[in-house]
């Protein structure tokens, strides 16, 4: 199997079997964004426990890349402190601008599958949609805390 088709497999798997899809009752923060270029709609919400993201979910609809990226994002930041999650968002967005190498942002290394999207600039917004929602959630949660 080529690396490219392996990446496609990972993206399709997350698209067909999204992790952490749904709503978070009593969430600490939630944000919704759209990507009109592609018609993707995204909502991300999380709940904090001991200053960590205890539960994070996404909902919405859209293309395989937007949904798969959201699914991977929830896996990557669940259990993180707000500061650690913020760091992952910054790193991911920098990678999607081609400013740095894809490093292991998550234990599974699956996010690297999104690297292929860089070849299609118009799809980058699909991949970053959920992460921009998360960034807004982190802003909102940061304001409420301390
Ligand atoms: Zn899309």
Q: What report would you give on this structure?
A:
This protein is of the alpha+beta class. It has a single domain (3-140), classed as Alpha-Beta Complex (Sufe protein. Chain: A). It is built from four helices and three strands, in the order αβββααα. It has helices spanning 3-16, 64-77, 82-96, 124-144; strands spanning 29-35, 40-49, 52-61. Strands 1-2-3 form a three-stranded antiparallel beta sheet, with helices on one face. The chain starts with a helix and ends with a helix. It binds zinc ion. Zinc ion is lined by residues 35, 38, 40, 62-63, 65-66, 126.
Write a compact overview of the structure shown.
With 146 residues, the protein is of the alpha+beta class.
For the structure shown, list the relevant keywords.
Sufe protein. Chain: A; 3 strands; binds zinc ion; 146 residues; 4 helices; alpha+beta; 3-stranded antiparallel β-sheet; single chain
Strand percentage lies at 15-25%
The figure for the number of domains is: 1
Helix content: 40-55%
Distance between the first and last residues' Cα: 50 Å
- Ligands: zinc ion
Number of strands: 3
> How do the SSEs run, as a string of H and E?
HEEEHHH
pLDDT < 50 stretches: none
